[in-house]
C-alpha cells in the first residue's frame, strides 16, 4: 500500500497478515531456532497489529517484518538475560568482505543452526534479514536501532563466527546421531535409545502431530504427547516405532520426517548437547511444513 492509497480496514490488514504469515514464521524460526518460540513471536506480532493504527500503515509487509524482528530481539534478550552485556563495539575491518559470498545458502543455514545460541539478538536479526530475506542494511538499520554501517557490521560479525564452524564435521555427527536414534527406535533397542538421549531431553508435539500419531498408533506411529521430559519417557515414546520416519534436511540442517507417498507429513527437529539429542520438536501443521525448506 502506498501513501496515496485508501487507508485499510483491520479486516483487510488481517488478510494481508495471513498472506505474510509464512514469511514471518520463517524469519522468527531462523532467528529463534525454535518453532514454538517462532509461533509465539508471530502471535505477538498479530496482537500488535490489532492494537496499531492500521489506517496509518503504508506498507503492511514492511511493518510486519519490522515488528516480528523487534519481537524476536525482545525474546532473545529475555532468553539470555543472564548475560551481562548484549551490545558490542565494532571496528571498520569487521565490515563485509568478498569472501562472505562464499557462504552459499545451504552452508549458511547449517552453520547458523549450529552456532545460533552463541549469537546475540542483533547479530542474529541482521544476518537473517540480510542473508536469508534480502533486506538491505538501510532497511535493517531502524529494525536493530543502528546505522546502516553498524547493521552491516552486525551481520559481518555473525558471519565471522559461522566461518569458524566445521559444517561438514558437525553435520556428519548430527546425521549419525539421528540415524542411530531412528534405527534404535525401529529395532526396539531401548538401551541404545537411552544412550543417545541427553538427561534433560524434552519432546514436544504440536496438535496436528498428536492427531496424526494418534490415528497411526496401531500401525507403529510414535506414542506422542504434548510434552514429554526425561530420557526414559522419551525412549518409551519411540521404542519399537517410527518405521516410516527417515533422515531429511531442513534448511541444510539434519532432521527427520514421517513421509507418506513421498510427502513429509510430520517433521522432527532436533537440538543437540554434547553429542546427544537434547530436544525433539514434532510438527505436522500444514502451514508450518509449507514454510520449511525440506529436502528428502
Automatic annotation (TrEMBL):
Residues 17-79 form the RNA polymerase sigma-70 region domain. Residues 115-162 form the RNA polymerase sigma factor 70 region 4 type domain. Pfam families: Sigma70_r2, Sigma70_r4_2. SUPFAM superfamilies: NTF2-like, Sigma2 domain of RNA polymerase sigma factors, Sigma3 and sigma4 domains of RNA polymerase sigma factors. It comes from the Bacteria. Belongs to the sigma-70 factor family. ECF subfamily. Gene3D superfamilies: 1.10.1740.10, Winged helix-like DNA-binding domain superfamily/Winged helix DNA-binding domain. It comes from Brevibacterium picturae. Interacts transiently with the RNA polymerase catalytic core formed by RpoA, RpoB, RpoC and RpoZ (2 alpha, 1 beta, 1 beta' and 1 omega subunit) to form the RNA polymerase holoenzyme that can initiate transcription. This is Sigma-70 family RNA polymerase sigma factor. InterPro entries: ECF_Sigma-70_Domain (IPR052704), NTF2-like_dom_sf (IPR032710), RNA_pol_sigma-70_dom (IPR014284), RNA_pol_sigma70_r2 (IPR007627), RNA_pol_sigma70_r4_t2 (IPR013249), RNA_pol_sigma_r2 (IPR013325), RNA_pol_sigma_r3/r4-like (IPR013324), WH-like_DNA-bd_sf (IPR036388).
Amino acid at each position: 500500500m502506498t501513501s496515496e492509497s485508501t487507508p485499510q480496514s483491520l479486516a483487510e490488514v488481517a488478510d494481508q497478515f495471513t498472506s505474510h504469515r509464512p514469511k514471518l514464521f520463517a524469519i522468527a524460526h531462523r532467528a529463534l531456532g525454535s518453532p514454538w518460540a517462532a509461533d509465539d513471536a508471530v502471535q505477538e506480532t498479530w496482537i500488535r497489529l490489532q492494537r496499531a493504527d492500521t489506517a496509518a500503515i503504508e506498507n503492511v509487509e514492511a511493518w510486519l517484518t519490522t515488528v516480528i524482528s523487534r519481537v524476536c530481539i525482545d525474546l532473545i534478550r529475555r532468553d539470555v538475560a543472564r548475560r551481562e552485556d548484549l551490545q558490542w563495539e565494532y571496528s571498520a575491518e569487521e565490515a563485509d568482505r568478498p569472501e562472505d559470498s562464499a557462504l552459499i545458502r545451504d552452508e549458511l543455514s547449517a552453520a547458523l543452526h549450529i552456532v545460533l545460541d552463541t549469537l546475540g539478538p542483533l547479530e542474529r536479526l541482521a544476518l537473517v534479514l540480510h542473508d536469508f530475506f534480502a533486506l538491505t542494511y538501510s532497511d535493517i538499520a531502524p529494525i536493530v536501532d543502528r546505522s546502516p554501517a553498524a547493521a552491516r557490521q552486525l551481520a559481518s560479525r555473525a558471519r565471522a563466527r559461522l566461518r569458524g564452524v566445521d559444517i561438514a564435521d558437525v553435520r556428519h555427527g548430527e546425521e549419525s546421531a539421528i540415524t542411530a536414534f531412528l534405527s534404535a527406535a525401529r529395532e526396539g533397542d531401548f538401551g541404545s535409545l537411552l544412550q543417545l538421549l541427553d538427561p534433560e531431553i524434552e519432546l514436544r508435539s504440536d496438535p496436528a502431530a498428536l492427531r496424526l500419531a494418534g490415528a497411526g498408533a496401531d500401525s507403529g506411529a510414535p506414542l506422542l504427547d504434548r510434552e514429554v521430559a526425561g530420557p526414559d519417557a522419551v525412549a518409551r515414546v519411540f521404542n519399537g516405532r517410527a518405521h516410516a520416519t527417515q533422515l531429511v534436511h531442513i534448511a541444510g540442517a539434519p532432521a527427520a520426517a514421517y513421509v507418506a507417498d513421498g510427502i513429509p507429513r510430520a517433521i522432527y527437529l532436533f537440538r543437540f548437547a554434547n553429542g546427544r539429542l537434547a530436544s525433539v520438536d514434532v510438527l505436522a501443521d500444514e502451514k508450518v511444513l509449507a514454510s520449511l525448506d525440506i529436502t528428502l
